[in-house]
Design brief:
3-stranded parallel β-sheet; mainly alpha; 3-stranded antiparallel β-sheet; binds zinc ion
């Protein structure tokens, strides 16, 4: 990947790469783009010999502001409280709502080969007092902060507004409080019933010390304070935060003017659009990362995010389409090219780095991985639907030798993915119902030229057995050309003779997945039918 290696070449001195996330609910697949980019930057820096720390934060003092995952009786009580203080909705498997959902995304990251050196939880950091110096700077600089919001984002806070959210000592909510005064040691706070629409404060107010975990900074200030506290030098962020006057601009200005430190390098990245819909964490729609992970193994998922540059949006529509088989095919093409084999079609420059960074193991033997035998996904999806096929034996026959342990692991992973794809994503055309017992009735529609093609294909296969789907595909094209039959009509003939319909999966792979003796018998039957039918003066 040119961009990450370029970035790494420009870096000077030790680097701290950081990102953080509010653990508000299930992780959607689109929200994995950032962590994958973070991981690749870290790998690229380390490959340059640069000492690099990868951090990932959980912003778990953020208020609960989405009631979708709360039971009705919990909404009034929990909305507005810090996520770290809301009970685990899944029962008592974790200490809090935040730990439950934070745990899910940590597991997803680990499954993708992303292993930060440290996860930090803001609910752990505030009580240590480590944030107190930034709270003090923010309160002392309240007028400046208000001016920054006005100047950078055109947001007008009231004159008495101070950049701090107290955790209400009465009701425990953080999303409902406003600080209106600061005497150098204590703040005056109000817990307002009407501050936000999604949570109701209890109405209490008073003077309180804001330190040691009693309060948290608002998001833009907390973000900038994290950079100072942790020494962050690189922090990519999504395009929605990177717009002019947006969150990143505000935090950059606060970092410089309030906390006196240059903000980290930004690498803005675009969204993943699933079926044309923008995927973001807060909208609560689209595919959950853990369910996509069942059908797209980690290396192909990393590849999905890494093939385009960060500033390019990704369009991905896995339901009822061939998008997932195509993703595997592209991965395999990048692997083949990396192994030095000739591949069809254009390849983006840096394909070798894209392949390398898609691998799960940062220190994998790239050449060995690239050279490993990988059965085509669509071919596996067909084989799995043919009764009585020993997939491993069949794939070893196509490879021409036994699979290595690594290749067996790849095969197992792909078989599981192909099954999940057939169960939940595949278009009807990919579903195979080979009519094994007899020539389907629909084959009556075969024309004489299609039957002649069947006979020629049968003869060609008897002269030399094609090995694998590509070879079968080539044999189909060759026989069709011999008979001057358009390829489309040849494919249609095969679908009629084997499936009893006029469309289907790639015909070469279909025939390759079936027992050759059966294929020959069926071709002969379909071809022979013309002779007897012709003798009768036409198909009956
Ligand atoms: Zn739990
Ligand atoms: Zn309150």
């Amino acid at each position: 990947m040119d961009w990450a290696d370029e970035l790494a070449q420009k870096a000077v001195g030790p680097q701290v790469v950081n990102d953080s996330k509010t653990p508000s609910g299930t992780v959607h697949v689109g929200s994995l783009r950032g962590p994958v980019i973070l991981d690749v930057i870290t790998r690229a820096l380390r490959a340059q010999g640069i000492q690099t720390t990868l951090l990932y934060g959980v912003d778990d003092l953020d208020p609960m502001d989405a009631q979708a995952l709360l039971t009705p009786d919990a909404i009034e009580r929990e909305m507005g409280r810090p996520l770290a203080h809301v009970p685990d909705p899944a029962g008592d498997c974790h200490a809090s709502y935040a730990r439950h959902f934070g745990g899910i995304f940590i597991d997803v990251f680990a499954g993708l080969g992303i292993n930060p050196d440290r996860y930090y939880w803001m609910s752990d950091i505030y009580p240590t007092g480590a944030m107190d110096p930034y709270i003090r700077l923010a309160l002392d600089g309240a007028a400046l902060v208000r001016e920054i919001y006005r100047r950078v984002a055109n947001v007008q806070h009231p004159e008495r507004w101070h950049p701090l959210s107290v955790i209400c000592p009465t009701c425990g909510k953080v999303g409902t409080t406003m600080v209106t005064d600061w005497d150098g040691e204590r703040v005056f706070f109000e817990c307002r019933p009407d501050l936000v629409t999604w949570a109701r404060g209890c109405g209490s107010s008073g003077w309180i010390s804001p330190f040691g975990g009693a309060a948290k900074l608002p998001w833009n200030l907390e973000w900038a304070a994290q950079w100072s506290l942790l020494g962050v030098t690189i922090e990519p962020c999504g395009k929605d935060l990177s717009t002019a006057g947006g969150s990143r601009d505000r935090s950059d200005a606060i970092a410089r003017e309030v906390f006196g430190r240059e903000p980290p390098l930004n690498v803005p990245y675009e969204f993943l659009n699933i079926g044309g819909r923008k995927m973001s964490t807060s909208k609560g729609r689209g595919a959950a990362a853990h369910s996509i992970a069942e059908v797209i193994p980690p290396e192909q998922l990393r590849f999905l995010f890494l093939r385009p540059r960060p500033n390019q949006a990704i369009e991905f529509d896995p339901e009822g389409t061939d998008a997932i088989p195509r993703l595997f095919d592209e991965f395999d093409r990048f692997a083949a090219a990396t192994a030095g084999r000739e591949v069809k079609g254009e390849l983006s420059p840096g394909y070798e780095a894209t392949f390398r960074y898609s691998l799960l193991d940062p220190v994998a033997d790239v050449a060995a991985e690239a050279a490993a035998f990988r059965p085509a996904f669509a071919h596996l999806a067909l084989l799995l639907q043919v009764p009585g096929v020993d997939v491993t034996t069949r794939i070893e026959a196509e490879k021409g030798s036994l699979l290595t342990d690594r290749e067996l692991a790849i095969l197992d992973e792909r078989v599981a993915a192909a099954r999940a794809w057939l169960d939940g994503y595949a278009p009807d055309a990919a579903r195979l119902a080979v009519q094994r017992d007899a020539l389907p009735a629909a084959a009556d529609a075969l024309g004489p030229e299609q039957r002649r093609f069947m006979a020629d294909l049968s003869a060609a296969v008897r002269r030399g057995s094609p090995l694998g789907g590509d070879a079968w595909q080539a044999a189909i094209f060759a026989s069709a050309a011999t008979d001057a039959l358009p390829a489309r009509r040849a494919f249609e003939g095969i679908y009629l003779a084997f499936l009893g319909r006029t469309s289907g999966p790639r015909a070469g792979w279909l025939l390759a997945s079936l027992d050759q003796a059966f294929v020959l018998a069926r071709l002969d039957e379909a071809a022979g039918f013309v002779a007897s039918a012709a003798a009768d003066g036409g198909p009956a």
